[in-house]
Amino acid sequence: MLKIKQILFLIIGGIQLIQAQSFIEGSVSDHKGKIPFANIQIKDLNIGTAADAKGHYKIEAPAGNYNLEVTAMGYHKFKKK
Description:
The chain is mainly β. It has one domain: Immunoglobulin-like (Sandwich), CATH 2.60.40. The protein has strands at residues 10-18, 21-30, 33-34, 39-42, 47-50, 56-60, 68-71, 78-80. Strands 1, 2, 3 and 6 form a 4-stranded antiparallel beta sheet that branches.
């Protein structure tokens, strides 16, 4: 059985407004570095994306405050508002 590691996800995110479009973007990492291909979801809107090979993600969403949920294989689920 795969041993699940306790980690700290560092989510560096921001919202950019571009022509009435809003984006939530940032990167997913732990104390060892970036976490590639992590899944990032906005549960309230039922939308999400996967981080790229460098741990970077970008989600288009209406302007607002959201709870992000981040999951990655071998890590505990992480939630951030």
